[in-house]
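Weekly structure sync, notes
Attendees: PL (lead), two postdocs, one rotation student
Agenda item 3: pending single-chain targets
PL asked that the sequence for the first pending target be pasted directly into the notes so everyone works from the same version. It is reproduced below exactly as submitted, 801 residues in total.
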Amino acid sequence: MFTAGAESLLQQAREIQAEELRKFCSRVSKLLREEDLGPDAIDCLRRLFLIVSATKYNRRLDKTCVDLLQATLCLPACPEPLQVLCAAILREMSPSDSVTLSCDHTHNTRQLSLVASILLAQGDRREEVRTVAQHVLRALESRQPEGPSLRHLLPVMSKVMGLSPGALQEDQTTLLSKRLTDWLRYASVQQGLPHSGGFFSTSRARQPGPITEVDGAVATDFFTVLSTGHHFTEDQWLNVQAFSMLRAWLLHSGPEGPGAPDADDKSELEGSTLSVISATSTTGRLLPPRERLREVAFEYCQRLIEQSTRRALRKGDSDLQKACLVEAVLVLDVLCRQDPSFLYRTLSCLKALHGRLSGDPACVRVLLPLARFFLTHGEAAAVDSEAVYQHLFTRVPAELFHSPMLAFEFVQFCRDNLHLFGGNLSILTLSFPNLFKFLAWNSPALTAEFVALLPALVDASTAVEMLHALLDLPCLTAALDLQLRSWPAASERPLWDTSLRNPSCLEAFRDPQLQGLVQHLLRSKASGTTQRLAPLHQLLQPMASCARVAQCAEAVPTLLHAFFSAVTQVASGALTNQLVLLLLERSDSLYRVPQFEARVHRVLSAQFLALCKLKPSLVVELARDLLEFLGSVNDVHGRASMVTSVVWAIGEYLSVTYDRRCTVEQINKFFEALEALLFEVTQSRPSAALPQCPPQVVTVLMTTLTKLASRSQDLIPRCLGLGGLSPGASSPHGEEGTEAIRTRATELLNLLKMPSVAQFVLTPSPEVCSPRYHRDVNTALPLALRTVSRLVEKEAGLLPG
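Predicted structure, written out during the meeting:
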């Protein structure tokens, strides 16, 4: 979030019109033509950068101004702040035909890095990426110790690798591997000199001392990113940058080609031939540049792991230790995949590291790359990794669900490594209650991630329990909030929650009589059972207005769509029936968050119809349950969408066309239930406690009754008698709703006067429903309907009965 002042400046920058911008560009151009580029030029360039970067679309600058920006950037003696601003403005404009820069016009590595960043932003329209790579590599070939700084070029090289991995030739790859090896292993172990100058500087200034470890001890091994000091030398800065791009470079320059063994072949090698190879270091023999780089990378990572055991004196160094551990484990994973001989030199170290970190909540993010390592290599190295997974999926989400960064990384870990779980995928699917804790607490940020992850989590054995969990997700958010408050060190307590004014809610949460339901809601693994949480819904009702609970409730409809899209791929007939029963049951048992019930009912009703279409026979199979649902509806207005879908499905699928087991007795029972429901909704008067029934429910009820009567003609007289239920002039449905009900009633009564035609229209055969029947002008259904209408309008003597 920006401050009020920053927001005001951004708003002003966005509102500047083209004419104002043209005048300002003229002013900038005038300043850039002056010989002395002073503070005024810097101030104007800052303003211009704000203008071009404040909007999502590209601002068009005068060509003269753009040319002067490029010329100023390439001046040999241009002040560095001006160069940085010119480059930033030109990058914001890219890609642009007005940019005509070339790396040939640069005079030092700093200038080259700025020009290269602009050319790379152009999008490789003129092979800029390859050109930049050639110039950067020529600069990197320089080995003069007093030459220009190479620090600015490694980030450019890293960007080149990402944009165009094939831009480097074999000899260039070898060259860069050699340079990275030197920077990683042979950086100076003495601190750098402070910047000289000033009145008090003397020739007898203190000589720099050795580098130190994070705990203050003098370093006795080579320099790494975890080494500390007051000042750093050029090669030490290059050491840090080399490590930052090491993993990407190893992946880029790894073994390729048809002669390299694939992953399966390597697994066999890991488990057989290499199991008897000595795990000694290979530094004693000459190695090709790429293999030498891997060996040095392995030593570097081992050194980082050793340095991480030291107690850091500063919090910043402690955080850096954790970040370096994550990267070191990821690099070791790449090394073991590229060269299996590293595996047996790595396993004991990482086993010990996991044992040391598994009990430290502050280091939990390091456990994710460790788990990935054991997922990748555990089987080949005959390591039982189940304990690693169990700890990761059981304790971590339950205790640290409130960490947003960990939540995102954990879900990303699950998504990125689905292919590695293999036979252990059940660990992931059974742990969905714990994973949902991340989702419940961080739903806005993780909704898209879980939409992508749900297809892997959905399993036929846990689908019903998972659907219950999704519907109870806002309730879980409220329970987690209270659980966090009840912990002794509730440092993560969200102070903005209105439930702070409801301490009784927290006290009731600890009630022993409700602990069974609370433990079920907060379970860490799928239990295979479900429980009605209505008592918890009532207990947690004061939390329903909390912002976090409301945010979670907004995500549930999206997650439900993703769930049903996945479950239909694995659902059997029995599971489909179970899901339908669950929809009927839960439509009246939801946590009452504002607007949550209406949104979820819309999804449930749509999915109910989709399941019925997938398996039409379920209407007959679940006839008793559907009749109970119709008889228990006491709030048609609150469940209008669900009631409408159920009634429509009965009228559509309760037919021998879809299930030969359908009997006249069943049709009669449904007719009686729907008749009673129609009478109830049309005769009851709306009140504050009982709002009026939507007209859509009335019209669907009338249509379904007519359909059932057309299939059991003994019901036609009773259905014709329902015409008296049409709303009168004082109907509460409003003028439009009343007219729609009357029109539908008239149409249906006219159809029932010709039973055979009614059955043809309301229960068409599969042939009639085929597309050809509707395209053929001689047999199309609209033609049949027009014919029926003309017959109905004629004298009554032509009609049967």
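Discussion points:
- Residues 197-202, 257-284, 490-496 have pLDDT under 50 and may be disordered.
- The two ends are 76 Å apart (CA to CA).
Action: rotation student to compare against the earlier draft before next sync.
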